[in-house]
Amino acid sequence: MNPLRTVVTAIWRIWFYILMALPIIIMLPFLIVFTSSEKFYPQFFVCARIWAKAILYGMGFYPKVKDISSLKDDKSYMFIANHTSIIDIMLMLAVIDHPFVFVGKVELAKIPLFGYFYQRTCILVDRNSQKSRMQVFESAQRRINQGNSICIFPEGGVPNDKSKVLTPFKDGAFRLAIDHQLALVPITFHDNKKRFSYTFLSGSPGKMRVKIDPVISVAGKSQSDKRELKDQAFQTILNELENPSL
Questions:
Q1: Strand pairing of 149-152 and 123-125?
Q2: 48-93: pLDDT as tens digits
Q3: Are strands 61-67 and 149-152 parallel, antiparallel or unpaired?
Q4: How far is CA 190 from CA 81, 152, 201, 211, in A?
């Protein structure tokens, strides 16, 4: 990378963190009210989508979405997607208009400003705590009863092995989907690692392709079917990554 491109890329990456904070500061009075009670979550979700789109378009990213899911407004779902970048969070919020709650790792609550609202609106899980994992079930049921969907990145985090197209899924999303009878919605993010990886001096503005596949029903499924559902969802996303349809 030549020196000029290095400087421009560094400024562009720093601009991302400014964009993360700026909409939060502008909407702060509303965010404080909308996070004061879970009954205001639909209003918070609208703010979260504005925040996400401000970041995406402010960074020069523009989503290109192919949606063949036929989602119904009166149903809750389990949204799952491959995970390669911090921008996955913003892109998920931008392309899915069904109010959903993230299940995410507790460590993200430590991020200044963002972390405050993250811990007040998301279902946090400490993967080193059995008690925490059990509490996720109760929290998910409460949020579903409020009319929300759930979103999990089933790889469990951004893969350490950068050569992997997709790493094996963990059980959590599929266990919850069966327990709460939530149809699974596989979503593929094609360009996020290329556009905005965790390597600081990398990335560029441009198109972000998203494929939202038809729902995978869990009706009548039990925990003994968990592996089958997990394999089906994994193969759906892997096939799209290897053979893009958009």
A1: unpaired
A2: 999 999 999 999 999 999 999 999 999 999 999 999 999 999 999 9
A3: unpaired
A4: 10, 17, 20, 8
